[in-house]
């Protein structure tokens, strides 16, 4: 406990000295450099243990094959169309959501092993650790999304709009991941327990299935369908289907008619709430 207090005092003293010795632009430069150092550290861990990424990719591919081939023949797409083309944009978004568990696990593991406390004792920016973690996770998410797209192309999924709309759809998927990782970082810093991952999974899986990923909300009871429509995941899925030109669930509600707008608004709200909370939770560790 005393060591944690000394680390906190040291970090505070160094931060105060850096704030007085360097102008604001220089502080930003060093904060970005510190964050990149943490990113490289996380990437080296993945290079040393690639099986974690491989298993994550295989799990996502398994879901595509299971729902696309085992259950796809029994599910009718609203308005007609190929179910796998209906499914794949939802699977892309669901993979971004499942990344929340990987973020939580990595942050809590560092905290549990004392790595985070050692970072706090170093002369680095207070936001560097969380920014580095976010950058590493976004790079991993891009790799995962690329693997999912390759799997989708292999099973017959295609986009039917222009390159600009397609890139915009991928951008919205990564924007959702960026917003959700701040939720994962904040939960990890607040709970600080690897054992709480089970509780997080209880949150993530219902959120993923209570959406338009697999079926249309119109097929659900009225109140449940409304919840599914307003799910942030559903907004990104609906927007991606529209931009890819894939079959969608449509709907007459306001949120259904403005899916692209909601696909921007939900991540913006999540980031605005949980990014500052994540930085604040990191700075309050061991106090």
From TrEMBL:
Main location group: membrane
Domain (ABC transmembrane type-2): residue spans on this chain: 51-285
One annotated GO molecular function: ABC-type transporter activity
UniProt-listed Pfam families: ABC2_membrane
Lineage of source species: Bacteria, Bacillati, Actinomycetota, Actinomycetes, Micromonosporales
Protein's name in the database: Transport permease protein
Family, per entry: Belongs to the ABC-2 integral membrane protein family.
Organism of origin: Phytohabitans flavus
Mode of membrane association: Multi-pass membrane protein
Region (Disordered) residue spans: 1-21
């Amino acid at each position: 406990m005393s060591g944690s207090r000394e680390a906190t005092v040291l970090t505070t003293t160094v931060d105060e000295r850096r704030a007085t010795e360097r102008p604001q632009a220089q502080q930003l430069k060093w904060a970005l450099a510190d964050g990149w150092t943490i990113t490289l550290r996380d990437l080296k861990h993945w290079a040393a243990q690639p099986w974690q990424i491989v298993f994550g990719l295989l799990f996502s591919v398994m879901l595509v094959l299971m729902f696309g081939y085992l259950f796809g023949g029994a599910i009718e797409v609203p308005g007609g169309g190929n179910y796998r083309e209906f499914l794949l944009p939802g699977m892309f978004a669901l993979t971004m959501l499942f990344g929340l568990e990987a973020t939580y696990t990595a942050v809590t593991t560092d905290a549990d092993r004392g790595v985070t406390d050692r970072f706090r004792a170093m002369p680095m920016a207070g936001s560097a650790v969380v920014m580095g973690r976010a950058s590493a996770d976004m790079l991993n998410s891009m790799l995962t999304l690329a693997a999912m797209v390759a799997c989708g192309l292999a099973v017959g999924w295609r986009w039917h709009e222009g390159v600009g709309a397609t890139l915009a759809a991928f951008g919205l998927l990564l924007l959702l991941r960026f917003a959700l990782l701040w939720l994962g970082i904040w939960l990890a810093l607040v709970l600080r327990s690897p054992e709480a991952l089970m509780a997080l999974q209880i949150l993530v899986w219902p959120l993923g299935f209570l959406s338009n990923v697999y079926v249309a909300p119109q097929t659900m009871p009225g109140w449940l369908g409304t919840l599914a429509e307003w799910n942030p995941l559903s907004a990104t899925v609906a927007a991606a289907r529209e931009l890819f030109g894939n079959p969608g669930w449509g709907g007459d509600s306001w949120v259904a008619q403005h899916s692209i707008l909601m696909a921007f608004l939900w991540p913006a709200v999540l980031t605005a709430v949980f990014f500052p909370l994540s930085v604040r939770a990191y700075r309050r560790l061991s106090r």
